[in-house]
Structure formats: C-alpha cells, structure tokens
Amino acid sequence: MIEESFKGTLQAKGFAEQLMRLKPKPAVEEAPGQFWKDFIRETAPEFRKSTFEQIETLIQPIWRELIDGSMYVNDRLKTIFESVKPDVIVQDNVVAFPAVLTAGVPWVRIVSCNPLEIADPALPPVLSGLPTSESSQWEPFRQAYATAHADLHRDFSQFTVEQGCPPLPALEFMFESPFLNLYTYPQELDYPRSRPLGPTWRRLESCVRATDAPFEWASSFVGSGKVIYLSLGSLGSADTELMGRLIDLLGATNHRVIVSMGPQHQELRLRDNMVGAEFLPQTSVLPHVDLVITHGGNNTVTESLYFGKPMVVLPLFWDQHDNAQRVQETGFGVRLDPYQFRDEDLLGWIDRLIADQGLTGRLQTVARRLQAKPGTVQAAEMIEAVARRGSPIPKTG
C-alpha cells in the first residue's frame, strides 16, 4: 500500500501498488509527499526551539496529523485487505492502523525511527534528545509530554477499541505485534536496557537498500580536500536559510561537497567546490565521502555507519535529536545546534573527525560487520517465516 501522492514509486521497484489517502484529496494536483513538505516548511520556525518547547507546538501537531490520517484511511485499508487477502501485513508507521490488527492475518511491526520509541524506564524519553548519562530532566519531559498528549491518546485509544482492537498502551500510539517486531539500529549505537525486549522483538542492525542508481561524479568538481556529504533530508532542507548558511560556509573551504538540495533546490546556489541535485542516490553517494553532515534521520545515521562515515549531526525535530545525542555519546560524531553553532566549531569538528585515525578504524570495523550481515536479508527471511508459519518465530540465542 502506498499513499496516492507517491504513486508509481514502489511500482518502479517491482511492487504491485494499492493506493490510499490519509486525508481528502486536494482540489489541485499535488507532488509526491507535498503535504509533509508544506507542513514542515510552515512549521520551520519550531525547529529553533528546544525539545521541551517543541512538545506542544510541533510534536503534538505532528502526532495529531498522523492519527487523523490513520482514522481517515482505516476503511480504505479494510477494503484493501479484503481484496488482496495478504498472508502477512508489514507496518512501518509510528501510529497504529486498527485495520491491520482486525484483518485476521499475521502482522509485523517495523520501528524505523530511533529505538527509544520502545520505552524503557532506565532510558531517556523518546523525542527528548536528552543524554543517557544524566537523568534529571527525564521525568519533567515525560510529564510535559503526557499532559500535552493525554486527550489525543484517549480519543485515539477509544477509536481503536471501537474498531475491534485493544486499548492503546499507556502514552503510546502504536501496538506491539504478537508475531514479529523489528527495529533498525546498529549494536554500537543501541541503548543499554534495564529489561530485555519481549520474545517477538528482533534488532536489524542495518537495513540499507541496494536499489539506488549509481552516482556520477562531475568532472568540474573543484577542490583538493576531503569529500563531504551534506543532507538535511527532504523536509529539513526546506529551511533554505539554514541550507544557505551551510553552503556558504562549506563553499569557502577546500573540501569538495556533495549536496542533497531537496524540494527547495531552485532557491539554493551551489559553489564551485560543490555538486548536487534535488534528489541524490544516497546509498551510492556515501561510499565516496569522508564525512556526513546530516539532520540525524534514522536512515542516514544507520547508513553512515554501514559505510563507515563519521557524522556532524544538526537535529531539527522528532527523533533526530535522539539520534544526534546517541551519535555523540558513542563517539561516532558530534551533535551541534543547527541554529547556534559557530562557524569555527563546525569547521573544526569536520577536520577533527576526519583526522581521527582511531575513529576511522572503529568505523571500518563496524562497516565490515554490518555489510557482512545485511538487515534487509534478515528482515525478508523473518517476514516470510511469519507468513509461512502464521505464528511467531521462536527466539534463539
């Protein structure tokens, strides 16, 4: 199943598509993912706030949009499941789709955001960006988060019950699958939990696609320094003021820079030491670079480790703050405030991270291990096993 504005995206990769919408169709034809691009662009001022301040003004509105979408699409999902009659349903989403639970077939949950989404009392609250080593602000954040989301949680939980599902777990908008639950995070980044996850949970240490087109280097690529990849994601790059500052700053260095320019690419002007485009085949780009400047999305963080690249993380919203904090805590990069960093700090960290031979060795070791056991293959095998068995997979080891 795919949202209508992304029609054709999965078909191009060999999948049959069933189309759905998460809200009424607009009067004017929309570009792929246009709703979320517009939403983030309009709320970009919220990126400058702390995670505490974002709870009510950014996090809660995003949850509301996601939940409204789930409620709107539920009947359509029922129709799709009745028509397709799947052997297994795989859901990668942060909110529940009740139709998945009531379809009467095994289903698999994928957690593709930071694994703090799977709560543990000995770990920082999800979306907080708080450190694991200092817990004084954990409970204040949890309380503020609970207060801001109490009504939303109550109403959505009531909806799931009306649709034939159990009530939602406390302060969560998603159910745990009784069949199989997967999350993507390398062991070197993962969190030390105070209690083990249940028997249906499995960690995929990476899940890197191999379907990206090759990356072609431009012959006019100027510079003799290291190669840096700059990507704030399709949503983060909508902040053209921030992107412009980074382009100007990196454009004055001797480094060569590959820029993922995003949906506002026409408003950005690259320097002579840069190449870029609206969309880039990221997994084909990463093997060629020496360092990644990222917003801290889970895909880019895990893919950077998969290819053994240090990171400068400039988190903007959602779990990017958690990923940025964890990258810094584990020594694979540095977390900087995207709106308050000093030029010399960013440039200094770039040079230090690239020159750190100990870090380079650690990253190469991680990359070899991850590439030797691709999470994509593991996930496919486990999902197929659930479909064949119609029951949970026994946990071994």
List the helices and strands and how they pair.
Elements: E1 2-3, E2 19-20, H1 34-42, H2 51-84, E3 89-91, H3 98-101, E4 107-111, H4 138-162, E5 180-184, E6 201-204, E7 227-231, H5 233-236, H6 240-251, E8 256-260, E9 274-277, H7 282-285, E10 291-294, H8 298-306, E11 311-313, H9 320-329, E12 333-335, H10 343-355, H11 357-372, H12 375-389
Parallel strand pairs: 1-2, 3-4, 4-5, 5-6, 7-8, 7-10, 8-9, 10-11, 11-12
Helix pairs in contact: 2-4
Helix content: 25-40%
Q: Tell me what portion of residues adopts beta-strand conformation.
A: 5-15%
Which spans of ≥5 residues are poorly predicted at pLDDT below 50? none
Output the strand order for the largest sheet: 9-8-7-10-11-12
If helices are DSSP runs of H or I spanning 4 or more residues, what is the number of helices?
12
Number of strands: 12
Average predicted confidence as pLDDT: 90
Radius of gyration: 21 Å
Element-by-element helix/strand order: EEHHEHEHEEEHHEEHEHEHEHHH
How does the major sheet shape up? Answer: 6 strands, parallel
State the secondary-structure class.
alpha/beta
Distance between the termini: 34 Å
Based on CA inertia axes, which overall geometry fits?
globular
Can you describe what's shown?
The chain is built from twelve helices and twelve strands. The chain has 397 residues and is α/β, with parallel strands linked by helices. The strands form three sheets. It has a six-stranded parallel β-sheet with strand order 9-8-7-10-11-12, sandwiched between helices. A four-stranded parallel β-sheet has the order 3-4-5-6, with helices on one face. Strands 1-2 form a two-stranded parallel ribbon. α2 runs parallel beside α4. The mean pLDDT is 90.
